[in-house]
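Record passed on underneath.
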Amino acid sequence: MSSTPLRLELARTLFNLGETAEGDALARGVREAAAAAGDHGLALLARRALAVDAFWRGVEGAASELEAIAREAIAFFEAASDQRALADAWGAVAIVAWGRCRVGEALAARQRMVELARATGNTHFERQALTEISPCLYIGPAPPGELLAWLDEHPWLAQMRPGQAGYQASALAMLGRFDEARLVAGQCEERARELGDRASIAGAAITRGELELLAGDVVAAELYYRSGCEMFEQLGQLGILSTYVTLWARTLWLLGRDDDAMVQTERSEELGASDDVITQVAWRQERARVLARRGEHAAARRLIDDAVAFVERTDMLWARADAFEALADVLELTADSGGAASALERAQAEFEQKGMIPAIERTRARLTALRAPA
């Protein structure tokens, strides 16, 4: 059994690198060996690793399974006073909260994970735990300046995980500092290629799409989103893909390629788990845009109302703003300029709370145009 925990660490590394089949086989082997040896703790950790992988691949029910494993693991490892394994269990709690778009809960669980990792005295493990704070600051209510300050305080994060530089690029783009954002995004991709980290290479393409869309270059954004989505599909990370194809769909719609946009919303609906909140919001809002431009106004309104209802239960300001902006698009296409203006006001309020300067300027300009005399 002495080498079995090391095999589990290797499996987790393979999962992080997108080598799903190899990681899955290793983790299943560890789970079976641990069960045969009566090592319940190691079996729990192997089950956690498999459930986390299933979550990111969009397997239906994976979030609920992971939540149950996490709660069982917390009770077991607290009783065993195993702080490292307990930190892993709290990491699983954070992942479930993340998938349900409860970013405040995810951040609290991540912070508990860091406390436990620090208590082990293992600096490398503590640093691994600290890398999980950045995505919560990025997608949650924290303004971009807070994320940049966090990354400045922990400059080694980007060397440890290339995706950390991606969060820096995104924060710079939210502040309208696009030249800096492009430079950092390029460095993120370069570092990922040096490490052979295919998942981070794909993530860098998505980051570049995001910043170009904020900058107003829809053509460039579409190319980057397409590239990132194709890479995530090759990696078999279908849960992540189910969300990102909706971003690709938006650029296709902005370019007038409505049929292609519809195809991507259908892929998202097919791939996304029913409890993946952000995906359930995103495919509905992007399809609503397509249907509204086709003149299918009633169907578009039903979808966008569902999307808004979903996202209003979350604390993801950016996602909330996106949904309100999509509602404005649908209402404007149905000639309801007053309703569209109200929706844009709600979007602008969310963008202002997040501190996304280019999006604030965009919605302000749209509001001015809508209110202008005919």
Q: What stands out?
A: The chain has three domains: 1-129, 131-236, 255-366.
